[in-house]
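[09:14] KT: can someone run the structure on this one? pasting the chain below
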Amino acid sequence: MVNKKGFIKIVEAFLSIMLLLGLILLAVNNNRVSSKNSEYILQKESDILSQIQMNNTLRQIVVQTTDYSLTSNDTAFNSELANYTKEDIIGYNCYLKVCSPEGICNMNLNSQKHIYAKEVLIVSSQSEYNPKKLKIFCTKNA
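[09:31] RB: done, structure tokens below
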């Protein structure tokens, strides 16, 4: 074979292009899986909040809450409401927080890389009108 060096260079270039395309496809596919996972978590959070909204007992607990500093991982938080989020989203820790409807409702989860949050306004129970904001925060288990 006369042009052996030329043929080897063509094969090297082809393999380099294939390797780059493989890495690009891998990166795009990982991003797509992450996006679907986010959609799933946000949907589960919406389901949890909707179920709490429709449950008279849980709604009453939220409306009667006065201490806005507590979250569902605090021992003073209502245990029935706190247990409602346990193991609903596998692989994630979820926390509830009741807040004033006018204020900012945040939670100190600075060490977490991905925090999924959703909120809903719970306006009243059957016996009283006392609007509260209920927010759920989910973070990936370590």
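[09:33] KT: thanks! The first strand starts at residue 92 and ends at 99.
[09:34] RB: yep, looked fine to me
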